[in-house]
Design goal:
The protein has 239 residues and is α/β, with parallel strands linked by helices. The protein contains eight helices and ten strands. The structure holds zinc ion (ZN).
Length: 239
C-alpha cells in the first residue's frame, strides 16, 4: 500500500511539473540519442546533424558561471526547452553544484577545453594535457566520461581530433551563431542576429554563450522568436 501511494504521489508530482508546459511554450519536440562513437557534427565544419527543416538544437558554451547560467536555466525552463552546455573545465571545478543543476534540469553537457585557450597555439603535449584535465574535471563533477567536445573558437587541431576520436568523444561544431560576446549588445541586436542566421541557414545547431550577460538577458526574447517563427527544439543525448 505504501509503495502504491508513493507511486501515486510521484505520478501527481509528474503531472504538476508538466502543467507549466503547453502549446504556448517553445517546448522540446524530440530527442536525438547519439552514440559515443566520435562522430563530428555541425555544418560549419562537419556533417550536419540529422535534423529536419525548421529544427534547432540549442547549445551554450563557456559556463557554468553563477552570474548568468541560472538566468539561462530559468529562461529555458520557462519555455520547457532543453539544451546542451559545453562547459569549460576551470568553471566546472569552480561551480560543480551549478554544473550538476544544469543536468538535473534536463539538459545535457559536454566540455569546451580546460581554460578556453586557442589550442592551435599550443604544442601537441599541451593540447593533450588540456584534454586530460578537462576530462578529469568532468568525471569528478558528473561521475562519468564526457560524451562530447566543442573546440574553443571552433579552432580544431589534428592532435586533438585524433585524441577525441580515440576516446570516442563526439566533436560538436555549429550550424549558426549570434556572435554573442560583445558586452554592449542589446536584446534587439541579438534578436536581429538570430533572425539573420536563421534566414541564412534554416535552422540547425545554434551556438550561444551562457556566460555572456546580454545573452542571458536576451534569451527569453530569443526563445520567443524561435516559437513565433515555428522552429522546434531537438534535444541531444548520448547513450
Ligand atoms: Zn567558447
Amino acid at each position: 500500500m505504501k509503495i502504491a501511494m508513493t507511486g501515486l504521489l510521484l505520478s501527481l508530482a509528474g503531472i504538476a511539473g508538466a502543467t507549466g508546459c503547453g502549446p504556448d511554450q517553445l517546448g522540446t519536440a524530440r530527442t536525438i540519442t547519439l552514440k559515443r562513437e566520435a562522430a563530428l557534427y555541425g555544418a560549419l565544419q562537419h556533417a550536419p546533424l540529422p535534423l529536419k527543416k525548421g529544427e534547432v538544437v540549442l547549445t551554450f558554451d563557456d559556463g557554468p558561471v553563477p552570474a548568468t547560467t541560472p538566468l539561462v536555466l530559468k529562461a529555458l525552463a520557462d519555455q520547457c526547452a532543453q539544451a546542451t552546455f559545453f562547459m569549460v573545465g576551470s568553471n566546472l571545478e569552480k561551480s560543480p553544484e551549478l554544473a550538476r543543476r544544469v543536468v538535473e534540469e534536463g539538459h545535457t553537457t559536454g566540455v569546451h577545453s580546460q581554460t578556453h585557450a586557442n589550442l592551435t597555439m599550443m604544442s601537441a603535449q599541451e593540447q593533450l594535457a588540456d584534454l586530460r584535465q578537462v576530462q578529469a574535471a568532468y568525471q569528478a563533477v558528473f561521475g562519468k566520461a564526457t560524451p562530447a567536445y566543442r573546440f574553443p573558437y571552433l579552432e580544431e587541431t589534428p592532435t586533438m581530433l585524433a585524441a577525441l576520436k580515440e576516446a570516442g568523444i563526439t566533436v560538436m561544431s555549429i550550424d549558426l551563431g549570434i556572435n554573442d560576446w560583445l558586452p554592449e549588445d542589446t536584446t534587439d541586436i541579438l534578436v536581429q542576429r538570430l533572425v539573420k542566421s536563421l534566414d541564412d541557414t534554416g535552422g540547425g545547431i545554434i551556438l550561444m554563450h551562457d556566460v555572456n550577460v546580454p545573452t542571458a538577458q536576451a534569451l527569453p526574447a530569443l526563445l520567443k522568436l524561435l516559437k513565433q517563427r515555428g522552429y522546434s527544439v531537438v534535444h541531444l543525448e548520448w547513450n
